[in-house]
Amino acid sequence: MIPILFEAGPFHLYTYGLTIALGVALALVLMQRTAVRDGFTNEQVYDFVFISVLAGFSGARLFYAAQHFSEFRGNPLEIFALWRGGLIFYGGLAAGFFMLWVYTRKHKLAFFSIMDFILPYGALVHAFGRLGCFLNGCCFGRACDRPWAVTFPGLDQPVHPTQLYEAFYNIAVFFILRALYRRRPKQGLVTASYLLLYGMGRLGIEFFRAGNPGWLLTWNQWISAALIFCGLAFGIGLLRKPARIRGKL
User: Fold this and answer.
1) Tens-digit pLDDT profile for residues 178-201
2) pTM of the model
């Protein structure tokens, strides 16, 4: 694996950070190509991306710190050492939703209209993040004897490349959500679909992750199940409602 791509004295170019940066850059370019057509300005797109990235990393790190408090009890400043690893996606997702909701309240914008626009690209960036996990050698799976199994440094047996499973799955989610968005469904339906699709994928992939007992759901799987339920309930509720003029939600 290649956790550090380049070193020069105290400077280290971490592969995980680089893949995230590439994913954000690609998402930004693609968002700007359709922003005006989708009813957003380029300035708003920059706001969306900045808020999503800042809130996402902050929430993911704080959620990790909350679950591994003993690691930081002696030195709480280590919480800010993101380059040493320790992020939980669901914390970032929750923080991103909350901060974008605050943004829409402040600017009097339609929350679900913005989330429908952003979430497909969020899945794309997440795919790049999982590629970074693969190159970093973290978040790997359980022991596996399949032809595509990978042996990471420090392991004595090949394992499921669960990072790649989730990366490819997120790319598929990106294309599905963009296709759905282009059909202009009811406002909020893309958001509901993201919750459902990602929850289903993560729930299944977690069974192949290292440390998963295989018979008892992990915290991430319980959260995934909650996302599935929320996505289904929200989506069904939207489909049952009569068509309405697009407006603020």
Assistant:
1) 999 999 789 999 999 999 999 999
2) 0.90
Q: What is the Cα–Cα distance from 134 to 122, expressed in whole angstroms?
A: 19
Residue ranges of alpha helices (H) inside 87-152 are 89-107, 111-136
- Per the prediction, the chain carries an average pLDDT of 90
Angle between helices 89-107 and 111-136 (to 10 degrees): 150
How far apart CA 156 and CA 172 sit, in angstroms, is 32
DSSP 214: S
Q: How confident is the model at residue 2 (pLDDT cuts 50, 70, 90)?
A: confident
Residue 159 has pLDDT above 50, yes or no: yes
What's the token pair of residue 27?
A: 């998402």
3-state helix, strand, coil in the chain (%, to 5): 65, 5, 30
